[in-house]
Amino acid sequence: MEPVTLSYPIHDARLANGLRVVVSPDHCSPVVAVNLWYDVGSGDEVPGRTGFAHLFEHLMFQGSLNVASGDHLGLLQAAGGSVNGTTSFDRTNYFEAVPVGALRLALWLEADRLATLLEAVDQDSLNNQREVVKEEKRQRYDNVPYGDVFEHLVRLAFPAGHPYGHMTIGSMADLDAASLDDVRAFFTTHYSPGRAVLTLVGDVTAAEGVALAEEFFGHVPGGSPRLRPVVDPLPALTGVPRLEVTAAVPRDGVYLCWRVPPVAHPDLEALTLATSILGDGLTSRLHHGLVRSELAEATGAFVMPLMRGTSLAVAYARCRDGVTTESVEEALLATWDAFLREGPTDAELARAQVQSTREWLGDLADVQHRADAISQFATQRDDPGYLNRRLADVQSLTATDVTTAARRWLPSDRRGVLVYRSEEPS
Amino acid sequence: MTAANRPAVGAPPLWHFPTPEVHTLANGLTVWSYHRPGQYVASVSLVLDLPLTVEDPALEGVASVCLHTLDEGTAAHPGSTFADVLESAGAVFGGSVTLSATTCSVEMPVTSYSQALPLFAEAVCTPALADDDVTRHVALRLADIAQYRANSAQLAGVLTRAAVFEESSRASRMNGGTSASVAGITPDAVREFHRRWYSPAGAVLVVAGDFLGGDPLPAVESAFGGWASSGDRPRHQVPGAALPRRRVIRREGAVQTDVRVAGYAIDRADPRWPGLQVASYVMGGAFLSRLNRVLREDRGYTYGISMSAHPLRAAGYWTVGGSFRNEVAAAAVDETLSLLDIANSPFTTAEVADAANYLTGVAPLRYATAQGVVEQAAALAAAGLGPSFVDENLQRLRDVTAEQATAAYTELVHDPVLVIVGDPAALGELGQGAEAVPQL
Asked: Which residues span the domain enclosing A55?
């Protein structure tokens, strides 16, 4: 079976002020996706100010010199646009997909907040969005069963003070402490054309896209270029650190984590295939070893790619009623160790590769995700066109590559363990 | 750059939901086929005309267990050998059970369409439904129910539907069955359910993708042409409305209160449907909706509050939902109920125009992918509607007046049910009459 060969057009340009502009025309539908990646995330926060990158993302929707609070979203929705922003450890992205007739409006709005946010942001909007973000934290994490699992895994895998040693959502105390001066300093340090990528995907030509970027962003002062602090890779976990927590959840769970290499490291795609073979779908080894064998309700494994020295790999299983965490951890490890010992079969590798192909083609099927992937590769690899070549890289990996990477990065004695117990004995 | 030179928005381009090629196989199966250039993942959904009212009331959930066990092995590929071949084709199997239909779905790279489609047909037409697999899926469904019970937002959602529809309606209970009914489901019951109700008669198969110059239909003929119809034809039920009520569920220690306000409403065929869609968007769909502008952007009470209309095949319901920190929950409920009363503040022409622009403007994006087209077409098939409904409804949305939106809303949004899930100790009067989390 010949895989689809991708050839999405990529036109890569840079304005005089440093803004990188990537245009990928696609005239299948009369819409354009606008995607801005700012090279700042919660990994850039300083102690005592956790949650700030994300709080700041909220403030970017609270108006700028020529835009009233809420109108960025309001005007674009009224033009038939779909709009949002998200913050992670490594980046903050802002995006909208709009009918072509609203493209100029979208770019004008994005440029206005980049150029003039500080002229509009005030204490009232900070106070308001601080409360909104605290509600978001309660709704997404604090009031949800297992909502703090990831926070515990982060604490197991990363030392305090490490860029990834705290959650992007931050702490209530730090959110309370955020001041307007912090907002100003954060914007001045992190938001400038030279630290952003603007990607346009959709019903626009390359020449039009670059000209529009110049028209709306060309006047924004350049600011300082990004000097990404070098973060050394962390050594593997040793001594199998364990954390046990008890909470009001229906079933016990076991979560394992590993430190693995950063984005663009040659081993990372091989590790992604390894965790896919172990944890994805009805054919996966963990499904056979834990779910089909009636020990677990659910199981899985994945790699979370990160930029600063170290990424995170996770495997988990939620216990069936009456099954102990000890027996589930034992079965997890037995399955894991067998895989590291044997490596993948040819069929397993081929399956993981073709599943990865479908997932990647699916990700790129809509203009918004395609634009986000282009911004990502421009930021992380200085190579926006990598989206056309990623499949070939994944297809070229061999069973030896996967086994070698898994043995190097995922041995069971290099894991951390989170045991999550139900308050009510099952 | 000033506010004065804010760019005007150009007229929306003429856009239509794609028109499928329609075929009917000799066994009654209808096929809607969409060629979508540039869509390299093919999406396929088979919509079975299968209302949940056909389930034995003592075994509700049997439709759901049946669906989830389909890909655990087939006559030709027993046990896990089925997943081996399906996943090796790059395919992923899924599906959903709604009140009116069971929908089985598969996605695969277009290059493996002809390899994966016959396997999909095996899962649908000749599944093994082996004892061990059924028993495991019964246990997994019971585990899911336990998770629902522990999750404030999910619990609120389940109890809202239970409060909106009268108890005799299947719509008042979870699509996947209750813990009591699921516990009684046996492998024989699942196999009998499949034999009796999985049938090409009345079913619609929707397929979309870039088939690279090929025709997707011959593979459908070959995979599904031999599937024989079962004799029984189901009848659909119109759910009834319950009396308005207020329900408070105790979740001790909860740091937030989930609030749902809801009521009985209409389906897509009702002439008020476009008016209700527009009204729901103005009240609680837009970021700057009447509710979100006040409760989030002015007060900071919530991450977001929304209103939406949920059409069933017959009738439907509307919901308003949000989560609020405990100390402001009572004030948030008061303010929500007050904003929902539009007696003195009918919808304006400007609000209705913005809503129509949004609802029609997002269509090209929403339906740009093969998956987006198939999901929408399958939802229409499940509602007994044809694929031309999207365009017809878009035109009706453009034509809705402020008076029509206000009238539809006023007729449908009144005397709501109220569901509160939170810690009554922190809620004062709002927490009165709290009951323990019920069994689901």
From this structure: 11-217
